[in-house]
Design a protein that fits this description.
Helix content is about 10%, strand content about 30%. The chain is mostly beta strands and about 80 residues long. The longest helix has 9 residues, at about 40-45. It starts with a strand and ends with a strand.
Length: about 80
């Protein structure tokens, strides 16, 4: 997963983050029945204050497998500010 802001901007907030079975699209994301509760904290720690960041999508990065044997994805909505 990669996030980046245009030149002169950095990631100032994470509005939504879910590793599991989130649904929706930008501005309208929702947690699914499977959700790693620390998803937002993991992304905030890695990305806040940076122009760009990247993270491997894996159970290890999120501290647990929120739903073994299910296909999972990561959805993130970030805010960039000067």
């Amino acid at each position: 997963m990669s996030l980046h802001c245009t030149d002169g901007y950095s990631i100032s907030a994470i509005k939504f983050s879910s590793f599991g079975t989130p649904s929706g699209s930008c501005g309208n994301f929702q947690h699914g029945t499977c959700h790693a509760p620390n998803s937002k904290a993991v992304i905030e720690k890695k990305c806040i204050g940076k122009q760009k960041c990247s993270l491997t999508i894996s159970d290890a990065n999120f501290g647990m497998d929120p739903c073994p044997s299910m296909l999972k994805k990561l959805s993130v909505e970030a805010v960039c500010a000067p």
